[in-house]
Amino acid sequence: MKFNCKELAEYSNGEATIEGRLHHKRITGGFSQSGKDTWHAARFKEKWFKLRANVLFYFSATEQGKVFDKRPSGAFVLENAVVQYEMNSEVPFSFSILFHDDVEKKHLFAGRSEENIDQWVNFLKQASYEFWRSQLIMLQTKICMLTGKVSFLGDNTENYHCFDFWDEFLYIPEYIKLMLLIIIRLVSLG
């Protein structure tokens, strides 16, 4: 996907799923070939974060925690990412984002309370296209098990397009096929 800074700044002005102050730092490194931990951490910086669809924008914050500039300082596109709680962090209420295509960088976030972090983690986990695709597949599987067919809404919401699930099974990626077969087997066992 291509976009420029102006388009990104314009998109960041829309209504947010969640927004607020968080402390952020980037941790780089990983594990060496000998298995030695080589993570290096920067210092935490307070920033204003705003989640819109699958894009997490961040803005410079003033001393009072307000947004310094209406234009975002940067953004994370939350695809191919793992969002998880950080239990072994030096701060009590924290979570991290690790991107599959850049496993040597981990982004650590800290908030004011456990509730605050729970909200962020829940919204961030639901922000990706991957999450909604897996939800769709799960619901389609349930429909298939109940009816033998999978329904899709077409362009016109009054017209439902059905096909035989097993005919389309050939086009599903292998890991999803395996997951579907396991689910179908578990359901059939009762």
TrEMBL record:
Gene3D superfamilies: Pleckstrin-homology domain (PH domain)/Phosphotyrosine-binding domain (PTB) (2.30.29.30). Signal peptide: none annotated. PROSITE patterns: PH_DOMAIN. CDD domains: PH_PLEKHJ1. SMART domains: PH (SM00233). Residues 15-129 form the PH domain. InterPro entries: PH-like_dom_sf, PH_domain. This is PH domain-containing protein.
